[in-house]
C-alpha cells in the first residue's frame, strides 16, 4: 500500500486522508493519484465512515499540483479516466461529505482536488491558483467545474492568467468557506466532527444531491477535456516546457 497518501479511520465516523509527500510539497504523482481513487472506493463502501477530512502533510502545502518532474520524465500525464477517479465523489458514488483543510500552496491539481471537496477551509497563509497555462498546459476538469463554484469572471481570470491568489481573496471569491489564523486542520476537524454526529441518511442524501448537477455537467464534457489534454501533450514543445518547469527555469 502506498505511503504517499495516508488513510486513517476514527471511531467518531471521521476518516482522515493525508497527502504525504511533504518534501515535494505533496505534489501528486501517478501512484498517489491511483491511491486516492482506491481510498474513495474504500470510504464509499464503509458504513463506519461518515465524513472525510482531506489535508496535506507538513505546513508548506496542501498540494502543489501534479508531479511535473515525473511528467517531464515520462512525457505524458495520467489518463483522464484515472484522473477522474482521483477526485472525491466524481466517479465513485461517495455520499459522504469531504472537507479540505488547505494550508500553504494549493495550486494546479491540488486546487482541482480541493474544488471537488464539499467544504474548503483555508489557513490565512494559503496560496491558491491554476498556473498550468504559464507552462503551456491546462486544468481541463477545473475549466468546466470552477465556474460552477465561483463567478465566471473570477474563474476565467484564475484559469487564464495563471496567477495565484491569497486566502483572503479566495474567501472573497467564494472559493473557500472560511479562513483561520490558527491550526487549519483543527478548524476543519471541528466541522467534520459536527457533521459526523448528525443522522446519516439526511447527510448522505444532501451530499449526493448537492453534487449531482455539477458532476453531471463536468462529465458531459469529458470527451472534450480528454481531447484537449491529449492535444497539449502532443503539441510541439510540451516536453521542453515540462522539463523547464521541473528544473525551475523560465520558458
Polypeptide structure, described:
- The protein is of the alpha/beta class and 251 residues long.
- Helix content is 47%, strand content 17%.
- It is built from 11 helices and 10 strands.
- Helix 2 runs antiparallel to helix 11, helix 5 packs antiparallel against helix 6 and helix 5 crosses helix 9.
- The relative contact order is 0.14.
- The mean pLDDT is 92.
Features:
17% strand, alpha/beta, 251 residues, 47% helix, 4-stranded mixed beta sheet, 10 strands, 11 helices
Question: What is the ordering of alpha helices and beta strands?
Answer: EEHEEHHEEHEEHHEHEHHHH
* Major sheet attributes: 6 strands, mixed
Total beta strands: 10
Number of helices: 11
Shape: globular
Oligomer: single chain
Strand content: 15-25%
Distance between the termini: 37 Å
Low-confidence stretches: none
Helix proportion: 40-55%
Question: What are the SSEs and their pairings?
Answer:
Blueprint: E1 5-9, E2 14-19, H1 30-45, E3 51-56, E4 61-63, H2 68-74, H3 80-85, E5 98-102, E6 105-107, H4 109-115, E7 119-123, E8 127-129, H5 140-149, H6 152-161, E9 164-166, H7 167-173, E10 178-180, H8 184-196, H9 200-219, H10 222-234, H11 238-246
Parallel strand pairs: 2-3, 3-5, 4-6, 5-7, 6-8, 7-10
Antiparallel strand pairs: 1-2, 8-9
Helix pairs in contact: 2-11, 5-6, 5-9
Give a quick summary of the entry.
The chain has 251 residues and is α/β, with parallel strands linked by helices. The protein has helices at residues 30-45, 68-74, 80-85, 109-115, 140-149, 152-161, 167-173, 184-196, 200-219, 222-234, 238-246; strands at residues 5-9, 14-19, 51-56, 61-63, 98-102, 105-107, 119-123, 127-129, 164-166, 178-180. The chain contains eleven helices and ten strands.
Amino acid at each position: 500500500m502506498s505511503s504517499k497518501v495516508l488513510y486513517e479511520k476514527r471511531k467518531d465516523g471521521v476518516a482522515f486522508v493525508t497527502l504525504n509527500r511533504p518534501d515535494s510539497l505533496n505534489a501528486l504523482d501517478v501512484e498517489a493519484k491511483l491511491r486516492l481513487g482506491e481510498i474513495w472506493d474504500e470510504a464509499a463502501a464503509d458504513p463506519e465512515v461518515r465524513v472525510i477530512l482531506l489535508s496535506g502533510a507538513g505546513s508548506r502545502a496542501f498540494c502543489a499540483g501534479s508531479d511535473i518532474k515525473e511528467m517531464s520524465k515520462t512525457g505524458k500525464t495520467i489518463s483522464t479516466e484515472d484522473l477522474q477517479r482521483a477526485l472525491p465523489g466524481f466517479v465513485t458514488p461517495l455520499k459522504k461529505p469531504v472537507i479540505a483543510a488547505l494550508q500553504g500552496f494549493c495550486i494546479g491539481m491540488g486546487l482541482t482536488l480541493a474544488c471537488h471537496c464539499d467544504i474548503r477551509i483555508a489557513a490565512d497563509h494559503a496560496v491558491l491558483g491554476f498556473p498550468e497555462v504559464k507552462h503551456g498546459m491546462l486544468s481541463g476538469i477545473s475549466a468546466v467545474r470552477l465556474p460552477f463554484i465561483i463567478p465566471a469572471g473570477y474563474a476565467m481570470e484564475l484559469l487564464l492568467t495563471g496567477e495565484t491568489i491569497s486566502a483572503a481573496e479566495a474567501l472573497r471569491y467564494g472559493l473557500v468557506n472560511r479562513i483561520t489564523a490558527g491550526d487549519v486542520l483543527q478548524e476543519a476537524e471541528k466541522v467534520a466532527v459536527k457533521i459526523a454526529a448528525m443522522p446519516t441518511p439526511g447527510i448522505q442524501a444532501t451530499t449526493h444531491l448537492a453534487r449531482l448537477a455539477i458532476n453531471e455537467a463536468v462529465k458531459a464534457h469529458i470527451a472534450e477535456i480528454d481531447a484537449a489534454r491529449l492535444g497539449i501533450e502532443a503539441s510541439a514543445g510540451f516536453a521542453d516546457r515540462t522539463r523547464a518547469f521541473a528544473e525551475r527555469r523560465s520558458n
